[in-house]
Write a structure and sequence with these properties.
This protein is mainly α and about 230 residues long. It has ten helices and no strands. It is globular.
Length: about 230
């Protein structure tokens, strides 16, 4: 027993050799970029709905239900599809759908209809559902059995790190189009934007969304570079 414990202590906590596997590295990079862009979108759209369109929190939350419903339905299905089709294809298509849906949000105006907005959120759920399960499977597919725990820890850390950075990064993008002090006061609800400030605030939201769409398009590159795989992937 003591020999076993001694070996475990000497083993490295992080096996960097995992990154030599192209599917593992490319999948994690694609996941990082997509999460970096995707996780900030509910925050940005909420600011739009509540501060530009003056909706109450309950109505704002209900508008996001179609997106989550699509993810719940499609997530398990895309996992089954990845049993028969290349993860590279499914994940890359999901990213492209995400990019188009996110870019559409940069066209939001003060009088934009809510129906296209809900449809766009549904498309975002479609892209997320197509990407997540096949990408996770691709990341873990060639990992040795004795490294599965470490590999999944790395994958989770990548997702959590991107999720934490996502909203501050979107605020940074927004501050390029609007004073940070004004933006901070508006985002915190300390200051209600005037008519002129609403236009500037909307422009800053649009700019942040455009940068998010660019990040998702960038994620398509490592997704395609992960390799062709086999239909049994």
């Amino acid at each position: 027993m003591f020999v076993f414990v001694e070996r475990r202590i000497k083993d490295p906590a992080l096996d960097l050799s995992l990154f030599r596997e192209r599917e593992f590295s490319a999948g994690n990079v694609a996941s990082f970029l997509n999460t970096l862009a995707f996780n900030s979108l509910p925050f940005v759209v909420t600011l739009y709905l509540e501060l530009v369109r003056h909706l109450d929190p309950l109505t704002t939350g209900l508008i996001f239900v179609p997106m989550e419903a699509v993810v719940m339905v499609l997530g398990p299905l895309s996992g089954k599809l990845s049993d028969h089709y290349s993860a590279r294809v499914l994940s890359s298509v999901g990213l492209l759908v995400n990019a188009v849906a996110i870019f559409w949000f940069s066209t939001l105006e003060q009088n934009t209809s809510f129906i296209p907005l809900i449809i766009a959120l549904g498309c975002l759920g479609l892209g997320r559902g197509l990407f997540a399960s096949p990408n996770a499977r691709s990341i873990m597919r060639r990992v040795p059995d004795d490294s599965l725990g470490v590999a999944n820890g790395i994958r989770t850390t990548v997702l959590n790190t991107a999720g934490v950075v996502s909203v501050p990064l979107s605020l940074t993008f927004m501050s390029l189009a609007m004073s940070y002090n004004e933006l901070s006061e508006i985002a915190q609800g300390v200051l209600l934007p005037t008519l002129q400030e609403t236009g500037t605030f909307l422009s800053s939201l649009q700019y942040a969304v455009q940068m998010s769409a660019a990040l998702v398009l960038l994620a398509v590159v490592p997704s395609l570079l992960r390799g062709t795989g086999h239909k049994s992937d």
